[in-house]
Amino acid sequence: MSVRRVMGIETELGITSTQVDTQGRPLAPQWLSGQVVRAYATAAGEGASLPVGSGWDYADETPLRDARGYEIARELAHVTQLTDVEDPTIANTVLSNGARLYVDHAHPEYSSPEVTSPREAVRYDRAGELVARRAVEHLAKEGREVRLYKNNVDGKGASYGTHENYLVPRTVPFDRLARQLIPFLVARPVVAGAGRVGLGQASERPGFQLSQRADYLEAEIGLETTLRRPIVNTRDEPHATPHLHRRLHVIVGDATMADFTTLLAVGSLSAVLRLIETHPDAVPALDLADPVEAVKVVSHDPTLRATVLTADGRRLTGPDLLEAYLEAVERAAASGHEAWEPDEDTDEVLTRWRQVLDALRRDPAECAQQVEWVAKHQLLQRYRDRNGAAWDDARLVAMDIQWHDLDPARGLAQKLRVAGRLERLVPDDAVERAVTEPPQDTRAWFRGECVRRYGADVRAASWDSVTLVDERGRPRRVQVPEPTAASRERVGELLARHTTTASLLTELASEDV
Amino acid sequence: MAGSSQEHIRRRDDGAPEPQAPTPPPAAPQAQSAERDEALDSLLDEIDGVLESNATEFVHGFVQKGGQ
């Protein structure tokens, strides 16, 4: 328990291409993104992904249901909120690692499979980078040139999301969860920011900031993810047994290239959630006077000294806010509470969070191997020193974008990884395995293994179902509402007994998965 | 862990005036900073060849549609 819970990371990738259509116009990003998804499916081959165009099953999706207890009317929703409508022009596939790879609006998106620890979240997030690389390499072999960027801004006003998902018990009241989480989310970029050149949604002012997303957050709490983006998103779409679970959908985070940063982002948040679940009265009372403003104040100050005002009149820095949460988490971890029973994942997250926070308080430069914004800031600052470049110099803006390039020959963060200047937490071979092998301890195992074993007879999948064809070719939907059900332990032998979906369905008809 | 927590509570409450505007961080020890610069220089030299040769055009062309 403790930092262990069902979680996953979805990443929309920036995309560019020098290709043009027959009239010399740039190609539409939606079309290009479709090419990426198709290219991966082609390169990966049968058994590694479903055929592109296989269905995504929207039956259990509820993008307009709000955790505050109501559902907005479809006619009042912005078209981008209707994520439960199949668009036949959009490419979609499900991978044998349990992930979904598809086109979301105008970006390729890799949604990782459900995992149960921060370290696994890092591993499957890195696997997503390899998936994207394979797609680009395959396109290059066909003479097509596409570049993918694991970042969240174009510096001209557009932002695209990296969303984290955490399974939370339905018993935790949502309004308290949101209130107790907001000050933490305001401060989390101190340890979890990817860094950004430019201040303001369209980089109106020169400068460097901690977070890619801060300037695009415009509300405290809300349902939208594309307009008036909130610090806490209220979409109530659990993708899990609804009366037991919530899925906390976190839209404020950055895509990260540094293993440590990803681990701390999801690990610290999962720990704070456990604190909110188990010790509600011990969560520090840090309500902020203006959280939306505070997000920007914290993000805009790489010295970590800027202060934000609490509702009760205190002025605290981003590290102060994180310190208060970490201390409460450390006390909870030592409390003997059954949900905080010691485990390696929790030890690792709390130890590293403490080390990084203490070091950041002494001098952020000490964390250049761990914290992505520090690593990026140092490299760019040194470039400025050598070349006399101001923060709005195109060369620095270009380096910021190129930091996130997923081509290892070009990506600056990847260059730092190879040079040993960004600490690695997951070995390459373990990441490689995660490209095709699903996590064993969640339903992602069932989803991924169905893709691998029965690919041609899988009609559709979703987070909580897989649709297989029976002996007459009729689609039959197998529901898996519990995220930790249908794990390898639970259904490994069942799948091993069946080489066809027809015989599997026959046995399933007589028992529940 | 308790020890370090105490230290931070003390540090936060030590009455030092909170700066209203960001101020530069304390300078790192000279030797450490020089060593860091040297390492970054060699890295910058190494990546020099992959940096966009026409940064202005590259930045101008990096336009994305909004996302979630």
From TrEMBL, chain A:
GO terms for cellular component: proteasome complex. It holds the Pfam family Pup_ligase. Keywords: Proteasome. Signal peptide: none annotated. GO terms for biological process: modification-dependent protein catabolic process; proteasomal protein catabolic process; protein pupylation. The active site is at D104. One of its GO terms (molecular function) is ATP binding. It comes from the Bacteria. PANTHER family: PUP DEAMIDASE/DEPUPYLASE, PUP DEAMIDASE_DEPUPYLASE. Belongs to the Pup ligase/Pup deamidase family. Pup deamidase subfamily. This is Proteasome accessory factor PafA2. It comes from Ornithinimicrobium avium.
From TrEMBL, chain B:
Keywords: Isopeptide bond, Ubl conjugation pathway. The keyword Chloroplast does not apply. The modification Deamidated glutamine is found at Q68. It comes from the Bacteria. Pathway: Protein degradation; proteasomal Pup-dependent pathway. Residues 25-62 are annotated as: ARC ATPase binding. There is a cross-link at Q68 (Isoglutamyl lysine isopeptide (Gln-Lys) (interchain with K-? in acceptor proteins)). One of its GO terms (molecular function) is protein tag activity. InterPro entries: Ubiquitin-like_Pup (IPR008515). One of its GO terms (biological process) is protein pupylation. Is modified by deamidation of its C-terminal glutamine to glutamate by the deamidase Dop, a prerequisite to the subsequent pupylation process. Residues 1-38 are annotated as: Disordered. Transmembrane segments: none annotated. Residues 19-28 have a biased composition (Pro residues). Protein modifier that is covalently attached to lysine residues of substrate proteins, thereby targeting them for proteasomal degradation. The tagging system is termed pupylation. The N-terminal unstructured half of Pup provides a signal required to initiate unfolding and degradation by the proteasome but is not needed for pupylation, while the C-terminal helical half of Pup interacts with ARC to target proteins to the proteasome. Belongs to the prokaryotic ubiquitin-like protein family. Strongly interacts with the proteasome-associated ATPase ARC through a hydrophobic interface; the interacting region of Pup lies in its C-terminal half. There is one Pup binding site per ARC hexamer ring. This is Prokaryotic ubiquitin-like protein Pup.
